[in-house]
Amino acid sequence: MTDDPKFGVRPEFQETWDFPLFEALTSRRSRRFGFGMELTHGPFVHKSPYEPYPLSEEETAVLVAAACGTTGAILCEGDTQGGMVKSVGRTHPSAVGAHRTLLFFTNDDGLFLYQADKAKMSKMKEYETVEDRDKVWDFYKNHTVKLSDGRFDLPQAEPGLFAHNTWVTNRPGTTLFMPVTDISQDLIRLMVNMCDTKGGARYVKGGGYYICDERRGMRPAGCEKWADNGLLDRNKVLPLGRLEKIIVSWLCAEGAMMGQLMQLAMTATGIGGWMHGGFTPLVAMGGTPICKGLGFRFVTPKDDPFPNPVGLDGYFEGFCPPYYKDMDAAVDAAVAGMGEKLDDWERRGMTLPHTVSNAEFEKAVPGVSDEGIECVKDICRYIYEEYGKFPAHNDTMHLLYFIQAHHLDTEFYDQYFKEGAYSHTHKNHFEKWHKGSNIPRRDGK
Description:
This protein is an alpha+beta fold. 32% of the residues lie in helices and 17% in strands. It folds into two domains: 7-181 and 251-292 and 399-433, NADH Oxidase (3-Layer(aba) Sandwich), CATH 3.40.109.10; 185-248 and 308-397, no CATH class.
């Protein structure tokens, strides 16, 4: 890692910071062919004359900052306030400030995790001065943990990788980023919002939604007594699978947005790479004997032939057993933060965006009731007892995208493509970001 505290004013980073937004947008491309790669058949037969050359930690820090960097306070303006104000702003948007996607990455040195959820904001706008840009390095240095040595274990063949990606994905010299999303915590919180009308839920008027299980003949998902006592409305039926689909679509978009942001930063920095889904998540996360993958823990559901990823022990754990003794405990943990006071949030060193008093702001924040929480516990208990996992119809953890970054072999593009296939930043990247280093050639020239 660099010891230079002036990372933010280095000329190569300054150029990246100042790169025009719309040039990055209109220049965004998948640029797959990097140093050390080879295509042996098809219209673009080529063997790179260069040895693989890994990204520096500084380059990696820039891409991580683009994907999920800390940006300051969330505004949370509206007529009915929510708990999302108690979130740290990131470069990517997140439904209700959930931020339940963490970024794993692997290179020749090892497997790493950037713990964005541990980074604290310090300002309304985190990067106000040129000196503030040093935080790009500081956040990366302070919140990246190494999980294991060497490139992560993934077969260069199906079912690990689809056949058309085996020549390029996770090759020496590349950095492979993997955003993993947990849907369990915010599925529980969504249930509270959909069911807890006594607690002031902002989503529903009248009785709460009546959650039924379409895979079990639309029978009540453990919540019939809550319809009997009036908390839920039998006329407002919500199938369990549809409920889960809401949270999956909300949260799993975070990984896609991270990938797009990294690709824009690749153009600005002059790094090659692209984003794809041509792999089997079950294999990549470690759910088969084929390879270790990310090393996630899996549980075996009752009637699903595929194991369910629930988390990485000690680092990223789902709100369900085995990380909690039962679903009642998981629900208690998931809703605990919903009741935190803004004064306590500030005492933890966080910044709030509003000029009104915390007391005035909190008057409009919907609460949670004991009845609502007990109702959600009954639904979650039904799911776990019926299916042997939580959620019922979806995995707990989702890995949908790979985003790879590597140094671009511009000679390949000069041979086969028209001018404009890459940017001036790619042409000049090595000179600017690796001053004094020669591009290593296979032939030693």
